Amino acid sequence: MKARGLPESRALAILQEELPKFGASTLVGIGDDAAVLQKSAKRLVWTIDACSEGTHFKPSWLGPEDLAHKSLHAAVSDLCAMGARPTAALVQLTLAPWLTASRLRRLAREQAAVCRALGCPIVGGNLTRGTEVQLVTTALGHLPGRPLERTRAQVGDELWLMGAVGEARLGLHALERGWENEPHFAVCVNALRRPRALVQEGLRLARTAHACLDVSDGLRRDAPRLAQSSDVRVVIEASRLERSADEAFRRAAAALGLDPLQEMLEGGEDYALLATGPSARRPRGARIIGRVERGRGAWLEAARGRTRLEGGFEH
Amino acid sequence: MKARGLPESRALAILQEELPKFGASTLVGIGDDAAVLQKSAKRLVWTIDACSEGTHFKPSWLGPEDLAHKSLHAAVSDLCAMGARPTAALVQLTLAPWLTASRLRRLAREQAAVCRALGCPIVGGNLTRGTEVQLVTTALGHLPGRPLERTRAQVGDELWLMGAVGEARLGLHALERGWENEPHFAVCVNALRRPRALVQEGLRLARTAHACLDVSDGLRRDAPRLAQSSDVRVVIEASRLERSADEAFRRAAAALGLDPLQEMLEGGEDYALLATGPSARRPRGARIIGRVERGRGAWLEAARGRTRLEGGFEH
Could you tell me the end-to-end alpha-carbon distance of chain B, in angstroms, rounded to an integer? Predict the structure, then answer.
């Protein structure tokens, strides 16, 4: 039994102790076959996302608290990109032997804290045993207004970025080199371990943007998706994108000897929001990084010409 | 690239081709950050379930079609156990190298067929890469009436079984011995590969039963859960349970030299429904296998006395 790790019944007991049964809309929570929600909203937004050992993280890089934080925020980020407010989540947790009772308790405590902060209770889930830890999170949200789809970018729109891109990638570089405790990587390592779903930013975008998606796979991959979904050309202006980076990011890139612009294009897992909309209605916090034109594909426009963005980041 | 298996973009294209965008309540389906559903029902039932290579299946035992079938029915079974009708599903699919394009297409085609049969469209999901294939399915359902919880069994209730128990376990024994093509194992092997979520049975139970759960981990584990959740004693009568088995199951047990009763107690993954309710309101198809008494725990009552049911099946 010991070699197989924590028994499921013990794991369930820990989760039930640490995760509060809160949320007025939850009629039946953790412990039954399924959760029951009482919903007044008519339009539900629904997503699922995986955080897998080996593919998305190494246990030596992310602690149990980081896993709790990152997995929930990553799933909720998809709701943000639709202009929704999170309602509730379910978590399918794969238990591997290294996830001891005390680590699971740390994970569950952080889940409870994150859920409270996001207003998104975990109302149930499922436990499985495996050789590697995995958290698959499904989250439901409700829409105050219309859904913010990725198919409605219009020619003449500005291209907006909410949040930072590239920081999590630099954080990963720092971890790979064992530099995570050096002060000029603090912001970037934190961006990797504790990304933040942009709930308020998504709600603001929903009021005025034409299209939006979250940059989970990096601009190089996600900008072409936006272009293709909306059947337009997306042009990223290199100078504007570079100017959108903050000082901590620049210092970290310099310390690593990396080109900031390339890192901003390649970096995924920051969960920034990429949106388009009319200039007159640009919401607070949205930085212009380009524009939408007639045509196809996503392009990077720099002083020496345009290059097409293709391929790029896979976990 | 080849060694890493199917690229995600190609996998997504196959899924989008094979999975129809049907379902009147789906406003935004596969391809955006999240699905958007238009719901009229006020009470939603929501579950998540994993079907993982190594833990739940071996690729040599379950084909792509079986995986599609089993993963969806297993998730929907949790909705059945709450008395809900399935509405829609999302699937997080982990791609391993052995899941080639043609296998993925077979899987997606069967998903489409199962969804149609269950009235439960797949409206989105997520793709990840890994060393083993995994399908994590989250399903939403709506309740025509009240939710069928596991906490409301009453002293004096009959204990009812809908569906078979033990067949999938005998199917597994047959596969382990390479006997899957022998005719007297056909029913049991099929029960393992293509379990059926008891949608209509769950809806019938919801009208009269006091409590219900699905027997995904076997009666030995699930009957004590029912007892504990409802704070009652659950008594399974060995003679009644044995009589509930059908002829194909008995023949398969005999061919394997196994005690049918033990297999019925240990066998999980049949997705039968275990319920309790008043004798006068026993629904069609529910077989009495025992009763609910004052006390604690789940007990097996045989000619030579009572034994307590504890522990048992973990995947």
Answer: 33
